[in-house]
Amino acid sequence: MRRLNLDLAERSYPILIDGGLLSRAEEILPFLRTPRIALVSNTTVAPLYMDGLVKALEKVGVGVTPIILPDGEAYKTWESLNQIYDVLLATRCDRSTTIVALGGGVIGDLAGFAAATYQRGVPFIQIPTTLLSQVDSSVGGKTGINHPRGKNMVGAFWQPKLVLADTDTLKTLPDRELSAGMAEVIKYGLIRDLPFLDWLEANMDGLLARDGELLAHAIERSCINKAEVVAADELETAREGGRALLNLGHTFGHAIETGMGYGEWLHGEAVAAGTMMAVELSRRLGWLCVADVERVRTLLQRAGLPVKGADLGAARYLELMSHDKKVIAGSLRLVLLKSLGDAVTHADASREDIVAAIEACCRA
Ligand SMILES: NC(=O)c1ccc[n+]([C@@H]2O[C@H](COP(=O)([O-])OP(=O)(O)OC[C@H]3O[C@@H](n4cnc5c(N)ncnc54)[C@H](O)[C@@H]3O)[C@@H](O)[C@H]2O)c1
Ligand SMILES: O=C(O)C(=O)C[C@@H](O)[C@H](O)[C@H](O)COP(=O)(O)O
Ligand SMILES: [Zn+2]
């Protein structure tokens, strides 16, 4: 088993990565305040994995209240959150009840926000079942829901007590979702880990063929990168760099997700197209060369990801991007690349260059 730690003083927690973890309920037991959990999942994941997990938990004396939500980004809403609160109240869950997320990033973000807010905060455990959630969303404590005007606009930082990534669950993940997760994996290489980018280029075919060892390595290396960034700037308050670097491609990508209506583009797909825009803008600023841009495009395409943006029109992109959470006093901060493997936050890109980068990637 691979075992990492996110180092946040009294809020530190382990990240466990291995096949078969769902049946090893004894790994979860030490992290519960009382043997009572509310298990949040969705209509796709529950039939695959809930029964086995509940049986394993009941065997070690844990009582489980299941909460099964509809599936999809379109349900990362107040209504789903209220559905969670309704069950927690109806079944008399108290402050010692641990909320456990079993699913992808949508379930993790929703269940985490419920945990942050129910009775002003209850313990939380992440059991991520998509590649994207195992490499990114289950780690770091960002939770929340979408608003029609912007992605993740309402939420809270609420760290889990434990992240348990069972790599066997990836065997049932659709190919399109595996590719979507790869966008966030590639992100770590681009922002701070050039040797990992080289490794991804050498191993992308094996990763897409779901070689277990390669996937476990990619998950571990991604989580090491994310844990280091979060430990240094947990609440994303650094004026420059810091946790915001994990947002490479996201200002453009979130505009695509919101502009197209949540769910049409997968988060990872929008991040991939947004990454191409950030890379193209970095080239226009003289930081990357054409060969760098082509290197990124080739890797994203090999991973099965889109490199062409949604055709929203530059003005709509700019309007949606103006709501980005990295905006300070009306000034847009973008994550760009000084070179491959070296990201920065940058507030001085001109409107003309941003529009040109968007347009280049929408007709590419
Ligand atoms: N909190 C964070 O730090 C953070 C980071 C990245 C992304 N996110 C958020 O995560 C969300 C995207 O997460 P996602 O890509 O996991 O999408 P998702 O949660 O929608 O899951 C993708 C699809 O796969 C299904 N699924 C999940 N596990 C499965 C399995 N093992 N087998 C078969 N099907 C399975 C789901 O039901 C869903 O249909 C977005 O809302 C994004 O904003 C949050
Ligand atoms: O953990 C982070 O910090 C990230 O930015 C990770 C992103 O991959 C993720 O999509 C996150 O939800 C985006 O955060 P937001 O603050 O831009 O909504
Ligand atoms: Zn993301």
TrEMBL record:
Enzyme class: lyase
Pfam families to which the protein is assigned, alphabetical: DHQ_synthase, DHQS_C
Main location, first listed in the record: cytoplasm
Record's cofactor remark: Binds 1 divalent metal cation per subunit. Can use either Co(2+) or Zn(2+).
Keywords of the record: Amino-acid biosynthesis, Aromatic amino acid biosynthesis, Cobalt, Cytoplasm, Lyase, Metal-binding, NAD, Nucleotide-binding, Zinc
Binding site for NAD(+): 71-76, 105-109, 129-130, 142, 151, 169-172
Names of the cofactor(s): Co(2+); Zn(2+); NAD(+)
Gene Ontology, cellular component aspect: cytoplasm
GO molecular function, one term: metal ion binding
InterPro entries for this protein: Dehydroquinate_synthase, DHQ_synth_AroB, DHQ_synth_fam, DHQS/DOIS_N, DHQS_C
Residues in 3-dehydroquinate synthase N-terminal domain copies: 67-179
Catalytic activity: 7-phospho-2-dehydro-3-deoxy-D-arabino-heptonate = 3-dehydroquinate + phosphate
Domain of life: Bacteria
SUPFAM superfamilies, per the entry: Dehydroquinate synthase-like (SSF56796)
Record's keyword annotation contains Transit peptide: no
Pathway in which this enzyme or protein is active: Metabolic intermediate biosynthesis; chorismate biosynthesis; chorismate from D-erythrose 4-phosphate and phosphoenolpyruvate: step 2/7
Amino acids binding Zn(2+): 184, 250, 267
Transmembrane intervals: none
Function summary: Catalyzes the conversion of 3-deoxy-D-arabino-heptulosonate 7-phosphate (DAHP) to dehydroquinate (DHQ).
HAMAP family listed in its UniProt record: DHQ_synthase
Family: Belongs to the sugar phosphate cyclases superfamily. Dehydroquinate synthase family.
PANTHER family: 3-DEHYDROQUINATE SYNTHASE, 3-DEHYDROQUINATE SYNTHASE, CHLOROPLASTIC
The name this protein goes by in its record: 3-dehydroquinate synthase
Organism: Sulfuritalea hydrogenivorans sk43H
